[in-house]
Amino acid sequence: METKHGLNVITLSDQLEGLLNRSLVESAAGMELQLEPGLQQRFLQVLDQGLDYCQAEGFTKISLLCDPRIRLQLRRLIEKTFPHLPVLSYAEIASGFQVNPLVTLEV
């Protein structure tokens, strides 16, 4: 089921992406995502369900696609639970490159 060309991605709903952008705060270590623990746990559950769906449909090479402003912080958020899931921003996709959205996450 893998596509031969393009990038298979999981995307974030506009609402979720907006929520994550609003959760960015400046700290001594730089920008950080500060989510309520329940919301963070829910996000990780929804991401896990999205990955399960993609794998059940035969997709094994999947990336998480997001706004450039939250890419690094989102990577940090998921790296312990999903260490092999690449996180890419829209800005990293070359123009004309085919993007295949498989699932859109909502919480």
Offer a few descriptive terms:
alpha/beta; four-stranded parallel β-sheet; 6 strands; 35% helix; Rossmann fold; two-stranded antiparallel sheet; 107 residues
Structural features, described:
With 107 residues, the chain is an alpha/beta fold. It has a single domain, classed as Rossmann fold, CATH 3.40.50.12790. 35% of the residues lie in helices and 26% in strands. It is built from three helices and six strands. It has helices at 14-22, 37-56, 71-78; strands spanning 7-12, 24-27, 30-33, 63-66, 87-89, 99-105. The strands form two sheets. A four-stranded parallel sheet has the order 5-4-1-6. It has a two-stranded antiparallel ribbon with strand order 2-3. Helix 3 links the parallel strand 4 (63-66) and strand 5.
List the helices and strands and how they pair.
Elements: E1 7-12, H1 14-22, E2 24-27, E3 30-33, H2 37-56, E4 63-66, H3 71-78, E5 87-89, E6 99-105
Brief overview:
This protein is 35% helix and 26% strand.
Number of helices: 3
Percentage of residues in helical conformation: 25-40%
- Per CATH, the superfamily is FHIPEP family, domain 4
CATH architecture: 3-Layer(aba) Sandwich
Strand content: 25-35%
* pLDDT averaged over residues: 93
Q: What's the story with the biggest beta sheet? A: 4 strands, parallel
Count of all domains: 1
Per DSSP E runs of 2 or more residues, the count of β-strands stands at 6
> Which structural class fits the helix and strand makeup?
alpha/beta
Low-confidence stretches: none
CATH class: Alpha Beta
Query: Can you tell me the overall shape?
Result: globular
Order of helices and strands: EHEEHEHEE
First-last Cα distance:
27 Å
| Strand arrangement in the largest pleated sheet | 5-4-1-6
Q: Classify the fold: give the CATH topology.
A: Rossmann fold
Radius of gyration of CA atoms, rounded to a whole number: 14 Å
